[in-house]
Input
Amino acid sequence: MVSGQRIMQRCDTLARHSELPGGLTRVFLSEENRAANELVLGWMREAGMQARLDAIGNVAGRYEGNRPGLACLMLGSHLDTVRDAGKYDGMLGVISAIECIDFLNSRQVRLPFAIEVIGFGDEEGVRFGTTMLGSRAVAGALDPAVLETRDAAGTSIAQALRAFGLQPEKVREVARQKRDVLAYAELHIEQGPVLEAEGLAVGVVTAINGFSRLRVTLSGMAGHAGTVPMGLRRDALAAAAECVLAVERIGRGDAELVATVGRIEAQPGAINVIPGKVAFTIDVRAPRDELRRQAVSSITNEIANLCAKRRIEPQIENLQELGVAPCAGWLMAQLERAVAAEGIPVRRLPSGAGHDGMALKGIADIAMLFVRCKGGISHNPAESITEADAAAGAKVLYRFIENFQAGP
Ligand code: GLV
Ligand code: MN
Ligand code: MN
Output
């Protein structure tokens, strides 16, 4: 049977590959990413899969069906993390999928479809600001111009791919055709408190909220903190502080909306210098695309107004936008049957967090299974799940795979 214990051990093992000693930070195309990929490639091969690294840095494994070359049920999640992350966000989905294949392989079961498991190299978008590079490439939705996006050190995605030993000019070849992918299903921790509050190990996702990511740069005038009178300053950080509060106020304007400034940097960054330049990010999410777009427009207008009053020049860049991704009814029904067969009451719930299915919906219908996490805590080292819930999630996923029927 699938082993909750092995799933937990593998999450622990992967978490050792971190740029942060004593914590977990593993960004796209880093040395830690390379070490994690090697582990996952090994686990896939042990589970009877053919496994390789694709041109965008995804770990891709394939378990053939009852004859070679069949269209696949695609499973997966991501192997990158946020900064100071928990060890289950992303990794649990990849490891649980491999665990299911291992069980099929141990019984020499071949199904009337192939199964592919993908450990996406970038879902969080921490290094380059733009997210889901791995799944967008698989969906054939990665504009080659995106490969010129640079990280904080000025390295482009294309350069980073090359330094990793990959060939950016081959990224197009990662794209899969609709006819090759019967469906995409992802197991992921809930990252919210609903399942825990209701005493449920797993839940079936109805839809993934859409998001917009923006980068704002405010240019004022650096100057001496002791000599320039308050009324004559063009302080970019004081202006940014007002902008951050405006983002929060607008985010609070609708119960379905959330808006966050997650990163801010002031330059030149010295105790005795008025900040002349500030850059910050904005993340806006909602279950309705129109609501999110209205919020983005209110935020950009408000930033322009606040900056005009302070003689600050704002520059706003739309980094990325992905619309709401509904899960397919026919896949939800199959997942629900698997949940019920494990004796777990069926609970449907939406996802506030983003997931690779948002990109993959371009080539396949998508489904997601959430596993309960402690206190709803995620994107935090305190992220935690129980071994029993890891086992329950993997058992449901296994039943779903074994009974999977392609098409509504
Ligand atoms: C990914 O975790 C996201 O929702 O940003
Ligand atoms: Mn995450
Ligand atoms: Mn995730």
